[in-house]
């Protein structure tokens, strides 16, 4: 930005620089602007960064303070320069800082004169102030503005001017909290200023537009400061346009008359003596009272009693907190009153209020901690008392109300003891939060208890229904579903009655209560339906078990022995009919006591559909199984569709066919075993053809002995060779095996006989007994071996001494 050189408009002694102003106007070509120009001025405490702000905001070159040489006066009098790069032409005036030590505390006339001159000449007045000075009397220029307002309305015809408060070194306090304070202070100043009769009721807004902006610290946050200044600079473009930053421009003089108008205004201000009013007493009172207040504030922070009280609060609630803290605060305020008694009353009272406010701000976090301890303690006491009351069997709602009232009452008592006399802080919000916490805990416990009750009765229903329903479906018959309905109704009513009594202590609304009871009834029905679906999934296994039970056991539940007299066809039909009954029972859910013809349909289609006559009669029935729904049965109640029944029946018959075949085979084998005698004609042929041989045996009994010995030898070979076991694997493998074992077996028998022949005579009796015993054993073992077919060969000693 190209900045024009600054020119001193009025020097430090109050002399108006006529030649310098004329030269400045010609240099910046102000005369050519007509009415399209604006005047901006800045006022504020000395060394508050006014010149720095103007140079950054408007591109001027006002002299700035060198911080390394100390804080001192930089700008003397009033300086003027043109803003660089801003249209329309904007002239800015830099005023000497107020409250400077160079002029002293009694020489405030020039401050008031320059401030009044700025308000009279400017369209926009920037009031530069530190953020921490907000709320203070002198540092915020309140007395100065009050005097200037009063004199201005008397000396000049006021026009609408924009007062822009520029808050420097903004702290963490939000701007929306600072702006109302400034606006309220300006309004109070305006209301307190004596006004001419014509403007008695005129509001502040008729003469001033109040704007508030905040800037960060130039030294600590330079980049952020420059960014905010750049944004503020944009507001000064076209400031004199309608709606612009400048006022309504009433009484504005042409640019070529600016120097003359400014000189006349300064002369009028210089001649007015009201601006020389002394303020020494107020200034002294302000400084001393603030020093005393700061001392008392520091003393309070270092107070041992306060420190102990603050530390005690960190660990828990403190009995008598409000009384103790009020005493400490009152002691600090009393000390202030004693030391500031002789200073100006208004200043003294104002500083006392500020001190008290600072002290209360200091102790408020500790007070909030106390309230927090009281609230958390009351909540824990409520939880413990509530749980104890519930464990003792008291009603839920009555316990909740009584425990809540008791705990809140104790909390209120604790708050009364914690309240500070000087503050009278409201504890309503903390109490409301406690009430919300208690209500939330009650709601949480209510949900938990109701959930536990629901789970309890649901588990009871599970135990009461699952097993019996499974057993009833396992023994499916015509009374299965009526029995299930009766069981469901009985157990459901018991559960609903129990839950209804348990919920009576919760004082819940009727709609919620009815919904819970209805849900329990639906849960009971759901258990039955779920168990029915599970059993339907095992229908094939159940059918096969029932078929096996009926087919393989008689009416006395004894295993059947297929002797050849049983009617296998009738037994098979009876077993299949029972299995079909089970299938028809499991096909659909029958909880509504509605009749159906599923069993009849299945019987006609699957059991009675064999044979030529039955085939023509059951065509329509078979066709009815080619469907995914049962007639007059809702789809959601169907467990096994007609098509699935047909498929299950086909699979069932295939898997039970083997059992029937085995029974038939066993019956035929039994018949063959019972017919061991040869036919009569064979017996007759044996008698006729074997008559001569029979007579030969009668004539010579020695042959009987030979036959008997041959029988014994043959029996021994049969056992030793395990002939029946060898032929189990086939004729050819058996012959081959016997051919390899025959000769060793014969040799073994002969060796045994030789050993027996050489035995001593004294052992003849023993040998005879042993031989007899051996024969008996051999006969027994031979029978056993022939029946089992797998016994190993044994050596049977044969006594030939007889």
Task: Please summarize what this structure is.
Helix 4 (142-155) crosses helix 5. The chain is built from 27 helices and seven strands.
- Strand line-up of the largest beta sheet: 1-3-4-2-5-6-7
Discrete helix count? 27
Return Rg in Å. 61 Å
Judged by helices, strands and strand pairing, the structural class is: mainly alpha
Secondary-structure map:
Layout (H helix, E strand, L loop, with lengths): L6 E4 L7 H11 L8 E7 L6 H9 L19 E5 L6 E7 L13 H13 L2 E7 L11 H14 L5 E8 L6 H18 L15 E7 L7 H12 L24 H14 L8 H23 L1 H12 L5 H19 L5 H47 L4 H23 L9 H47 L5 H24 L6 H28 L1 H14 L15 H20 L10 H10 L4 H6 L1 H7 L16 H33 L5 H10 L1 H9 L2 H20 L1 H4 L4 H27 L6 H25 L14
Parallel strand pairs: 2-4, 2-5, 5-6, 6-7
Antiparallel strand pairs: 1-3, 3-4
Tell me what the structure shows.
It is a single chain. By secondary structure, this protein is mostly helical. Helix 5 links the parallel strand 6 and strand 7. Helix 3 runs antiparallel to helix 7, helix 8 packs antiparallel against helix 10 and helix 8 packs parallel to helix 11. The radius of gyration is 61 Å and the shape is elongated. It is found in: Endoplasmic reticulum membrane.
């Amino acid at each position: 930005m190209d900045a024009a050189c600054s020119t001193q408009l009025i020097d430090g002694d109050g002399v108006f620089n006529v030649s310098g102003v004329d030269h400045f106007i010609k240099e910046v070509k102000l005369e050519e602007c007509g009415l399209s120009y604006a005047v901006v001025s800045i006022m504020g405490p000395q060394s508050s960064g006014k010149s720095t702000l103007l140079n950054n905001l408007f591109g001027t070159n006002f002299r700035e303070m060198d911080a390394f040489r100390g804080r001192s006066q930089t700008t003397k009098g009033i300086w003027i320069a043109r803003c660089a790069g801003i249209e329309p032409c904007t002239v800015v005036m830099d005023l000497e800082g107020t409250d400077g030590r160079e002029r002293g505390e009694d020489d405030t006339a020039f401050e008031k004169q320059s401030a009044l001159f700025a308000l009279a000449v400017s369209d926009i007045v920037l009031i530069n102030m530190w953020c921490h000075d907000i709320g203070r009397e002198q540092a915020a220029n309140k007395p100065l503005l009050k005097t200037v307002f009063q004199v201005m309305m008397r000396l000049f015809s006021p026009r609408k001017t924009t007062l822009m408060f520029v808050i420097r070194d903004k702290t963490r306090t939000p701007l929306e909290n600072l702006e109302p304070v400034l606006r309220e202070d300006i309004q109070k100043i305006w209301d307190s200023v004596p006004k001419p009769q014509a403007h008695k009721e005129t509001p502040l807004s008729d003469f001033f537009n109040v704007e508030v902006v905040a800037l960060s610290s130039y030294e600590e946050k330079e980049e952020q400061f420059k960014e905010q200044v750049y944004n503020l600079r944009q507001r000064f473009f076209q400031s004199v346009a309608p709606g612009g930053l400048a006022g309504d421009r009433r009484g504005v003089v042409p640019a070529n008359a600016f120097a003359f108008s400014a000189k006349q205004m300064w002369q009028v201000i210089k001649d007015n003596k009201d601006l020389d009013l002394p303020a020494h007493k107020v200034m002294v009172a302000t400084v001393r009272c603030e020093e005393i207040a700061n001392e008392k504030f520091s003393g309070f922070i270092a107070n041992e009693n306060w420190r102990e009280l603050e530390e005690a609060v960190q660990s828990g609630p403190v009995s008598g907190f409000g009384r103790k803290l009020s005493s400490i605060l009152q002691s600090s305020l009393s000390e202030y009153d004693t030391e500031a008694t002789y200073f100006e009353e208004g200043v003294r009272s104002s500083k006392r209020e500020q001190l008290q406010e600072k002290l209360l701000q200091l102790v408020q976090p500790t007070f909030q901690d106390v309230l927090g301890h009281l609230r958390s303690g009351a909540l824990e006491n409520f939880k413990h008392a509530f749980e104890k009351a519930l464990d003792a069997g008291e009603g839920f709602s009555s316990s909740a109300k009584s425990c809540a009232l008791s705990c809140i009452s104790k909390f209120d008592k604790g708050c009364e003891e914690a309240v500070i006399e000087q503050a009278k802080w409201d504890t309503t919000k903390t109490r409301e939060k406690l009430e919300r916490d208690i209500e939330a805990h009650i709601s949480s416990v209510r949900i938990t208890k109701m959930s536990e009750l629901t789970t309890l009765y649901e588990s009871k229903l599970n135990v009461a229904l699952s097993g019996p329903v499974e057993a009833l479906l396992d023994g499916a018959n015509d009374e299965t579903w009526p029995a299930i309905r009766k069981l469901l109704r009985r157990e459901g009513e018991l559960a609903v009655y129990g839950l209804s009594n348990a919920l009576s202590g919760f004082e819940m609304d009727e709609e919620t209560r009815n919904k819970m009871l209805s849900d329990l009834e639906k849960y009971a029905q759901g258990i039955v339906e779920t168990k029915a679906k599970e059993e339907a999934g095992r229908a094939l296994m159940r059918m096969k078990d029932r078929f096996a039970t009926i087919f393989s056991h008689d009416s006395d539940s004894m295993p059947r022995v297929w002797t050849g007299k049983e009617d296998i066809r009738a037994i098979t039909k009876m077993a299949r009919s029972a299995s079909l009954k089970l299938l028809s029972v499991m096909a659909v859910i029958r909880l509504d006591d509605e009749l159906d013809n599923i069993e009849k349909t299945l019987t006609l289609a699957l059991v009675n559909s064999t044979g030529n006559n039955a085939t023509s009669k059951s065509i329509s029935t078979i066709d009815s199984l080619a469907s995914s729904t049962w007639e007059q049965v809702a789809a959601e109640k169907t467990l096994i569709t007609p098509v699935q029944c047909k498929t299950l029946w086909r699979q069932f018959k295939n898997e039970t066919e083997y059992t029937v075949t085995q029974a038939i085979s066993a019956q035929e084998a039994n018949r063959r075993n019972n017919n061991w005698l040869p036919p009569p004609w064979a017996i007759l042929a044996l008698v006729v053809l074997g008559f001569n041989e029979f007579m030969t045996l009668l004539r010579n009994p020695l042959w009987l002995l030979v036959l008997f010995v041959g029988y014994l030898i043959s029996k021994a070979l049969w056992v030793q060779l395990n002939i029946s076991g060898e032929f189990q694997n086939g004729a050819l493998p058996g012959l081959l095996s016997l051919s390899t074992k025959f000769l060793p077996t014969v040799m073994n028998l002969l060796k045994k006989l030789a050993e027996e022949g050489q035995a001593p005579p004294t052992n003849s009796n023993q040998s005879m007994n042993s031989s007899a015993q051996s024969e008996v054993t051999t006969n027994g073992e031979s029978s056993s071996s022939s029946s089992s077919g797998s016994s190993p060969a044994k050596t049977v000693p044969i006594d030939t001494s007889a």
